[in-house]
UniProtKB/TrEMBL annotation, chain A:
[2Fe-2S] cluster binds at residues 84, 89, 125, 129. One of its GO terms (molecular function) is 2 iron, 2 sulfur cluster binding. This is NAD(P)-dependent iron-only hydrogenase diaphorase component iron-sulfur protein. Belongs to the complex I 24 kDa subunit family. Keywords: 2Fe-2S, Iron, Iron-sulfur, Metal-binding. Binds 1 [2Fe-2S] cluster. It comes from the Bacteria. It comes from Desulfosporosinus lacus DSM 15449. Its cofactor is [2Fe-2S] cluster. InterPro entries: NADP_DH_HndA-like, NuoE-like, NuoE_dom, NuoE_N, Thioredoxin-like_sf.
TrEMBL record, chain B:
Keywords: 4Fe-4S, Iron, Iron-sulfur, Metal-binding. One of its GO terms (molecular function) is 4 iron, 4 sulfur cluster binding. PANTHER family: NADH-QUINONE OXIDOREDUCTASE SUBUNIT F. PROSITE patterns: 4FE4S_FER_2. Belongs to the complex I 51 kDa subunit family. Coiled coil: none annotated. Residues 610-638, 639-667 form the 4Fe-4S ferredoxin-type domain. Pfam families: 2Fe-2S_thioredx (PF01257), Complex1_51K (PF01512), Fer4_9 (PF13187), NADH_4Fe-4S (PF10589). This is NAD(P)-dependent iron-only hydrogenase diaphorase component flavoprotein. It comes from the Bacteria.
Length: 162, 667
């Protein structure tokens, strides 16, 4: 597994990052953050590679990856659409917003559209409670998303012009 | 003891902060009042005082506030503060700041008027907000389009831009300053948030920054510092309310060659954003408090465990740490003393349970964030087996003023057992959503109706939810009880980290309990059975209730199971997970009964229990027939329509469409 990944440019970047660490095992989470940044997700072979480089069992790596919701083992779409499901958004209609997005994108939360354009996810509170309910596309917050029309307009901005 | 262990700091694991810096081109150049001058490490207290004296002019315009005016600048450079809090940032405040700078440049005013982006002003509802000094004028709900008007009217013509000035919705009175939202608030933890530019250490120093550290290092002994904290009555603001001084004392008294101090910035409570606001608006206050803690408990290393979901906070912390090192406020021989201390950032990875201190410690060690059995407490055996003190961000932010102003000053604020202030993130169905800091003992009514401006759309208050997934719902009858740690626990809720969500008549309490149960079920780490299986079973019973499939026996089982989990779960997450259910059962039992026995949802939220009916007021316009996704409404033009209850999805589309009041009813 390790060999198949090493010719890759990504793997070289990851390796040089790991090499720069004095304390390797303690920094597993930091290494995983870095790996996810360059690969976009954490597939099996990357986890294997990290386990070997840090000299820890791959089960430990998998254990950590599967524990934290920030890490994903499935590739995401080009744009990540997040619905805030914090309490403030919940009482101001986050459920409806999520359903509307599921309708418009024709996928369920946690899935990616077949054209690989959008991934729909939920997260807890971005601190923009005054704008509830909010959706976040690629880190950009869009507030007061009550109407289907508004949601459609936001999504349209991220669709390629056809 | 006071040895510098630099090796662990030789690297940084925080890769995306580095990326962030590259992307955003962070420069400390603007941090210096004299550009180009090489910063000196501060060698002693005199050097710090001298730097403070020099830096005071940075805040001069903001301090010279007398009355509202647009013409009298008292010969000072004007400061335009554009709120950079999470809410205002999301509604485009960075772009407003940029446009302001462009416009001022265009008109050749950029020398006389400077634009700043400080942290959260707190009044999120009316964001984006800007504040102009020394004019002492605040503008609300500013948009990009307003920028030209502000520059032309306010700065060039010297007129107040009336329509951007806050108007009280009830009295229609306008307030250019002293907005009623801030009445009754007392800012200690948030003292600098929204007031200083957080990316400039000199502004923090000008605002008495690092003076408390100097006092601790040169005039106090470690146990004196701990005594001051104990006398001040400061308690942990993360939720449980453990006395901070006692925690420090325990850590100090544990024999070891190394101790650690950790700042818990893993703010996972949905609906709470006060720690984030402190980190983004006043990062140095946290660093200074950690230094004070380090010297008091005998630690030379500190960690800030911050959520990866807070890139702006991470960015600001990184800048603050770099600046503190540059001025010799972190590193070896701080301010010429023999005290050595350094701070490293550690990123979380999206696990709510990591807010629990033992879980957080495991996460810093690079493992799964699962809690462990206490004792041993972290104060005895924590990070890498060494005594460790874990403090919350807001707790730490309170410490420098306590050291400077004394324990008596702090303990005079608040109630008998809860001293000082508490920051609440006020949200939900309240008019003025925002961040409020009030003395302990303030009543819910004052927070929700005076500061918060009452309930949205003149609806009726039903409950206030405090403490997030670990807290409970407080009904109307307790609106006038003073809030502190004890009173909230006594009425079945808890202080928690300070989320305060207001619920109105349209909220179903069973559904709210179910929402929190879903949260704790998802976030349960799975280590102990009580929490892993218990929260799932609770969620299933609540689902049955909201679907109208539950019996009274289920309700009994729900309550029994709540108590079992409370008694047997391993950590705070599990022990407090049943709180939202227990408190709603206590105060809103009739709603549960309505769901179980009458199969109705009084608030009209639980779709399975709703019934839509067309009354004889129907004029037969056929609008609903066309809109029904199930095609289950029958009827011809000008005749009363009928809904086929068997096939009805209860989506409410017909009711949304209907133009005749009372023709379609939901019950």
């Amino acid at each position: 597994m390790c060999d198949s990944a090493s010719p890759n440019q990504f793997a070289q970047k990851l390796d040089s990052y790991i090499d720069s660490l004095t304390h390797k095992k303690e920094n597993l989470i930091g290494v995983l953050h870095y790996a996810q940044e360059i690969y976009g997700y954490l597939p099996d072979n990357v986890q294997w590679h990290i386990a070997q480089r840090l000299d820890i069992p791959s089960a430990t790596v998998y254990g950590v990856v599967s524990f934290y919701s920030f890490f994903t083992m499935i590739p995401r779409g080009e744009h990540v659409v997040n619905v805030c499901t914090g309490t403030a958004c919940f009482v101001r209609g986050a459920e409806k917003l999520k359903e509307e997005l599921e309708n418009q994108l024709k996928i369920k939360a946690g899935e990616t559209t077949p054209d690989n354009l959008f991934t729909l996810e939920t997260l807890r509170c971005v601190g923009a409670c005054g704008l509830a309910p909010v959706m976040i596309v690629d880190g950009e917050v869009h507030g007061r998303m009550h109407e289907a029309q508004d949601i459609n307009e936001v999504l349209a901005k991220y669709r390629p012009e056809s | 003891m006071k040895m510098c262990q630099k090796e662990r700091f030789a690297h940084t694991s925080v890769y995306n902060i580095q990326n962030f810096e590259l992307r955003h081109g962070v420069s400390t150049k603007e941090a210096s009042p004299k550009e180009g001058k090489c910063h000196m490490k501060l060698k002693n207290t005199d050097a710090l005082n001298e730097l403070q004296a020099q830096s005071l002019k940075l805040l001069e315009s903001r301090r010279a506030i007398d009355s509202v005016g647009t013409n009298n600048t008292q010969g000072l450079v004007r400061h335009v503060m554009v709120c950079g809090g999470p809410g205002c940032h999301s509604s485009g405040s960075p772009r407003i700041a940029e446009r302001l700078e462009e416009e001022l440049n265009k008109r050749g005013l950029s020398e006389q008027i400077k634009v700043f982006q400080p942290g959260c002003f707190g009044f999120c509802e009316k964001g984006p907000m800007i504040e102009i000094f020394p004019d002492n004028v605040t503008y609300c709900e500013v948009s990009e389009e307003d920028v030209t008007t502000i520059v032309e009217e306010h700065f060039v013509q010297g007129n107040l831009v009336e329509h951007l000035v806050f108007m009280d919705p009830n009295t229609k009175e306008r307030f250019a300053t002293n907005i009623p939202f801030y009445d009754g608030q007392l800012r200690i933890a948030l003292r600098n948030v929204g007031y200083i530019a957080p990316e400039n250490i000199l502004e923090y120093i000008a605002a008495d920054g690092y003076q408390a550290l100097a006092k601790v290092l040169f005039t106090m002994k470690p146990f004196e510092v701990i005594d001051v904290l104990k006398q001040s009555g400061l308690r942990g603001r993360g939720g449980a309310g453990f006395p901070t001084g006692t925690k420090w004392e325990f850590t100090r008294k544990s024999e070891a060659d190394q101790r650690y101090i950790i700042c818990n910035a893993d703010e996972g409570d949905p609906g709470a954003f006060m720690d984030r606001s402190v980190l983004e608006g006043d990062p140095h206050s946290v660093l200074e408090a950690m230094l004070i803690a380090g010297s008091a408990i005998g630690a030379s290393e500190g960690f800030i465990y911050v959520r990866a979901e807070y890139p702006a906070a991470i960015h600001r912390l990184k800048i603050a740490i770099a600046q503190a090192r540059e001025y010799g406020l972190l590193g070896k021989g701080i301010l010429g003393s023999d005290f050595c201390f350094d701070i490293e950032l550690k990123l979380g990875a999206g696990a709510f349970v990591c807010g629990e201190e033992t879980a957080l410690i495991h996460s810093i060690e690079g493992a799964r964030g699962e809690p462990s059995v206490k004792p041993p407490f972290p104060a005895q055996k924590g990070l890498w087996g060494k005594p460790t003190c874990v403090n919350n961000v807001e707790t730490l932010a309170n410490i420098p003023p306590i050291i400077l102003k004394g324990a008596e000053w702090f303990s005079a604020i608040g109630t008998e057992k809860s001293k000082g202030t508490k920051v609440f993130a006020l949200a939900g169905k309240v008019n003025n959503v925002g961040l409020v800091e009030v003395p302990m003992g303030t009543t819910l009514r004052q927070i929700i109706f005076d500061i918060g401006g009452g309930i949205k759309q003149r609806k009726t208050f039903k409950a206030a939810q405090t403490g997030g997934p670990s807290g409970g719902c407080i009904p109307t009858k307790y609106l006038d009880s003073p809030i502190d740690y004890e009173s909230l626990t006594a009425i079945g809720s808890m202080m928690g980290s300070g989320g305060l969500i207001v619920l109105d008549e349209d909220d179903c309490m069973v559904n709210i309990a179910k929402f929190f149960q879903e949260f704790t079920m998802d976030e349960s780490c799975g280590r102990c059975t009580a929490c892993r299986v218990g929260t799932k079973r609770l969620y299933e019973i609540l689902t049955k209730i909201t679907e109208g499939k539950a019996t009274l026996e289920d309700l009994d089982n729900l309550e029994k199971l709540c108590h079992i989990i409370k008694d047997t779960a391993l950590c705070g997450l599990g022990q407090s997970a049943p709180n939202p259910i227990l408190s709603t059962l206590k105060y809103f039992r009739e709603e549960y009964i309505a769901h179980v026995v009458d199969k109705t949802c009084p608030a009209g939220v639980c779709t399975h229990l709703l019934k839509y009916e067309i009354t004889d007021k129907c004029v037969g316009c056929t609008l609903c027939v066309k809109k029904c996704p199930m095609h289950c409404i029958t009827g011809t033009v000008k005749k009363r329509h009928v809904i086929d209850q068997e096939r009805c999805l209860k989506c409410g589309a017909c009711m949304d469409q209907c133009r005749v009041v009372g023709a379609i009813i939901r019950h």
